[in-house]
Design brief:
- The complex is a heterodimer of chains A (385) and B (514).
- Chain A is 66% helix and 4% strand.
- In chain A, the strands form two sheets. In chain A, strands 1-2 form a two-stranded antiparallel ribbon. Chain A has a two-stranded antiparallel ribbon with strand order 3-4.
- Chain A is globular and about 65 Å long.
- Chain A is mostly helical and 385 residues long.
- In chain B, the strands form four sheets. Chain B has a two-stranded antiparallel sheet with strand order 1-2. Chain B has a two-stranded antiparallel sheet with strand order 3-6.
- The termini of chain B are far apart.
- The radius of gyration of chain B is 25 Å and the shape is globular.
- Chain B is mainly α and 514 residues long.
- Classes of the chains: A mainly alpha (385), B mainly alpha (514).
- Chains A and B meet through helix 4, helix 5, helix 6, strand 2 and helix 13 of A and helix 2, helix 3, strand 2, helix 11 and helix 16 of B.
């Protein structure tokens, strides 16, 4: 039976899944952040850029889909968060604009600013893009200072205007940097992206020195990732969370709310733990086994699972997924911020096309990745970056 | 609390307009060049002629450079609905978000996935698989345009929706009415064809440059021949869809049509201005100053194009503000003041409804809901003050429209001549025509920009026609925030544009490897 409630939960699952897939695909950004450290020679830099350059569009498209799906399914989030945490989102978009041109432009004659500038763009996108995304997602657990009052729309011509969602401080999202837990998830995402990138290079490159070094980078980045993630996770599980009364819709603080969510949804907990285990297996296998090159797939699938399920505990089980610390009752839940039943149903049917999309992505990925990428491949490739 | 003011609205509009204008510099070339490039590769697969492969690959390189910056400018547009138009995002997100999501799921992924095979798959997949990838890339780009234009068309002509006073937003009731709105379908063909026309102008112009330099002559003649035929057909069809657009505007946005024509006082059997100069001293719709210094009119044409009847009455700006004329359905047109009154009634009824619901007065609530529904069509007018507020910027709309039309007809003529010269094998010797074709490239870009100015400036003051004006749609930001991001993105896009143009010029100078 497809009820309104089912559709709201279904769409929160899709949003969470998209965020999980996006996080996995941020290995592109992670790789960009290592252009100056992992690669030493010009040839090595070129190889890294070309390995990543065949994948950047997937990350970019997933980000666009994430935005579009959020708009269609939870428009109040779109208006509240994007219009309120203005600077975080604008800086994030700025980073992605820099990335979009850099692969295509950086080795082309006449690019004015020189290859190093475009590599710097890629580096900025790699570091800032992942970190800011982590900080933005952390606010799903730590909250932001906003208010929502739909009746503001009726204030025709008044001094305060008719703005429904208002950010209640002048920093417009930058205040999130004042919260250590937000930093932890931001740094965790940055190091996860770098770990995944190193795993990707181990899997993709036919270059002994880079593969060997990448294995070391898996360890160097995997350790801080685990530390920052654990701090964020433990702190979140034992902190107060934003609970919603299912009858009245009133939001209140509940101790260990997110831990309770895990315990009250054991399947989510088991899958989450499986995800974490897969991430760690991918890392450990690569570090400790010499000929193990499939770490990216274990850690990749693990990342998708972990992030998806982490977001499920933010929105499921009567929880406000985008909480307001300024006015608890303005907090967004999957019930009060979603689109109408009709729209969610239409979009549900559209989402049935997703397996087709995944099918042709797999086809395209495999077509181009029949063997690891080497310098020889770049010499014969007329479209090499 | 940050004060909402006019400059915030203006800067938010400026930022969106700047981003959209940059985006539309790159998208049309992607759409047009993509199709021609796919036809060239089809020729290669069919004939096995290596020259076609190299020709297709050359244009593919140009396509790739252009595609990247198109993507870069596009992402900002999607997110700006949330960042700068937050009220809008809630008020109509239930309807407007769906086409954007569908665009990403069914179109952008198709384009972004197969483009990687198109670029990197020449030596990795079979010839036919590569050709399929190329066609799927351009199909994805075109489908992407469709869904974006569905969203835009809905802002011009909101259909398939119902206002829900409990959620204070519009909600979709008929997906197919939104997805297949006549405004959307027409807009799609008009916009995509303008991309094809621009792509053709680019190919013919660049080919002409090679002829002027006496380089890659075979390649240039092949490209010009295909580009001229493609461009001629595109511009003929553009005229047809342009007529369709004007018809839709006449029915759904009469104020926009009146502004496009600088028509203040309506008349039966109205003529269309072929050429005119507006009087800049005209400041208000109801002053006594003649709106024109000078004009040449084609008799009865506006009535014919707008209403398919040479004697139809075309309302002018004054008529629309003052009301009282007879609409095509026989009803009497309301004046601005009447619409404003009904808009205020709707807004007040919404306030009363919500209060009554809170206090459990269900009978009263039902009555207020009724009042709201009866007057909802004019909801947005409740936010406006005077009739003047409901009029778009007439000179900008007028000149943009007329210049666009003139450029359109110019291209029909130019492509016809180039096609003829190509067919008679005289193109190589016609230096004057080569110069014309080369220097016409910027005109194709200009026409596209002008078209969007007509569509978007002509829609003002509305974000959603008659339902939500711009001042009620904007986010609660300080003007300084928006000015800063405007400068940030304007600088970045300008630098990237300069880089893109320089790269394109270098690639063109380098030429195909034939």
């Amino acid at each position: 039976m497809i009820t309104y409630s089912f559709l709201q939960h279904y769409w929160w699952f899709i949003i969470s899944l998209l965020c999980g897939v996006l996080t996995f695909l941020l290995f592109v950004q992670g790789g960009q952040s290592m252009l100056y450290s992992l690669a030493k020679t010009e040839d090595e830099k070129k190889l890294l850029v070309n390995a990543l350059g065949r994948k950047w569009e997937y990350t970019f498209t997933t980000l666009v889909t994430f935005g579009g799906a959020f708009f269609a399914s939870f428009p109040l989030f779109y208006s509240t968060s994007f219009g309120g945490a203005y600077w975080v989102w604008m800086l994030l978009l700025f980073c992605f604009v820099l990335q979009a041109v850099s692969y295509e432009f950086h080795s082309k004659p006449g690019n004015i600013f020189g290859a190093n500038t475009y590599r710097a763009f890629l580096f900025i996108n790699g570091v800032l893009g992942t970190f800011l995304l982590g900080v933005a997602v952390a606010t799903f657990f730590t909250g932001s200072a906003f208010s929502v009052n739909k009746e503001n729309l009726l204030n025709v011509g008044s001094a305060g205007g008719s703005v429904i969602s208002r950010w209640e401080n002048p920093f417009h999202g930058l205040e999130a940097l004042g919260n250590l837990r937000n930093w932890c998830l931001g740094l965790s995402l940055l190091f996860l992206a770098r770990t995944l990138a190193a795993l990707f290079f181990v899997n993709r490159l036919d270059h002994a020195a880079l593969v060997e070094k990448s294995k070391k980078y898996v360890l160097y980045n995997g350790v801080p990732f685990v530390i920052f993630f654990l701090i964020f996770l433990v702190r979140t599980l034992f902190a107060e969370g934003f609970a919603v009364d299912p009858g009245s819709g009133i939001v209140s603080m509940e101790k260990m709310k997110y831990l309770h969510n895990f315990l009250q949804m054991p399947i989510v907990l088991v899958m989450f733990l499986l995800g974490v285990a897969a991430v760690l297996y991918g890392i450990a296998g690569t570090v400790f086994k010499n000929d193990f090159r499939k770490g990216i797939w274990y850690s990749g699938v693990g990342t998708v699972l972990t992030v998806t399920l982490l977001l499920l505990i933010a929105g499921y089980n009567h929880t406000a997924y985008y909480p307001s610390t300024y006015d608890l009752q303005s907090s967004l839940t999957i019930q009060n911020s979603s689109s109408s039943e009709f729209t969610l149903r239409v979009m549900f049917y559209v989402s049935l096309l997703v397996p087709v999309v995944i099918g042709y992505i797999v086809y395209a990925w495999r077509s181009l990745e029949k063997k690891p990428l080497s310098m020889e491949d770049l010499k014969s490739d007329e479209h090499a970056y | 609390m940050e004060i909402l003011n006019a400059s915030l609205v203006n800067w938010s509009r400026a930022q969106f307009a700047m981003t959209a204008a940059y985006h539309w510099l790159f998208v049309p070339l992607t759409l047009g060049l993509g199709v021609m490039m796919a036809i060239m590769e089809t020729n290669y697969v069919r004939t096995g002629d290596e020259k076609w492969r190299k020709t297709a690959k050359f244009w593919q390189t140009i396509f790739g450079i252009n595609f990247a910056i198109g993507v870069a400018t596009g992402i900002i547009l999607e997110f700006q609905f949330g960042t700068n138009w937050s009220n809008y995002s809630w008020f109509v997100g239930d309807i407007f978000g769906a086409p954007l999501a569908i665009e990403a799921i069914v179109a952008f992924f198709l384009e972004a996935t197969f483009i990687s095979i198109m670029f990197f798959g020449w030596n990795r997949v079979s010839k036919k698989a590569h050709l399929t990838a190329t066609w799927l890339t351009i199909l994805g780009a075109t489908l992407s345009a469709y869904w974006i234009l569905v969203a835009n068309a809905w802002m011009q002509y909101p259909v398939g929706m119902n206002f829900n006073p409990d959620t204070v937003r519009n909600e979709m009731t008929d997906f197919w009415a939104v997805a297949l709105s006549p405004v959307a379908v027409n807009k799609f063909f008009h916009a995509v064809l303008s991309g094809w026309g621009l792509g053709a102008s680019f190919v013919v112009g660049v080919g002409s440059w090679y002829l002027l330099k006496k380089r890659h002559v075979d390649f240039a003649l092949k490209s010009i021949k295909m580009g001229a035929a493609f461009g001629f057909i595109s511009f003929i069809l553009l005229a047809v869809t342009g007529d369709g657009s004007a018809y839709q505007v006449a029915q759904k946005q009469p104020m926009k049509l009146a502004s496009m024509e600088g028509l203040y006082k309506g008349k039966t059997g109205a003529g269309m201005v072929a050429f005119g100069i507006l009087n800049p001293n005209k400041q208000a719709y109801n002053d006594s100053i003649d709106p024109y210094y000078f004009k040449i009119e084609l008799p009865k044409l506006l009535s014919l194009l707008g209403y398919r009847d040479i004697n139809a009455f075309v309302p002018g700006i004054n008529d629309i503000v003052d009301g009282g004329y007879t609409l095509p359905d026989g009803e009497k047109a309301l004046s601005f003041d009447e619409k404003k009154e009904r808009g205020q009634l709707a807004i007040q009824a919404l306030a009363n409804y919500r209060k009554a619901k809170q206090e459990g007065r269900d009978a009263d609530a039902a009555e207020y809901k009724n009042t709201l529904q009866e007057n909802y069509a004019y909801f947005g007018y409740g936010y406006l003050k005077t009739g003047q507020d409901s009029i778009p910027h007439v000179p900008l709309t007028f000149y943009s429209f007329h210049l666009m039309v003139i450029i359109g007809f110019y291209f029909i003529l130019m492509f016809a001549i180039v096609w003829y010269f190509g067919h008679k094998k005289k193109m190589e010797s016609a230096k004057w025509l080569q110069y014309i074709a080369l220097w016409s490239i910027p005109l194709a870009y200009l026409a596209g920009q002008l078209g969007w100015i007509v569509a978007e400036v002509g829609r003002q003051p509305w974000t959603i026609q008659d339902v939500l004006p711009v001042q009620a749609a904007v986010s609660g930001l300080s003007t300084g925030n928006v000015i800063t991001t405007f400068i940030l993105f304007a600088t970045l896009f300008t630098l990237l544009l300069v880089a893109e143009v320089t790269i394109l010029v270098k690639q063109i100078k380098k030429g195909p490897e034939i």
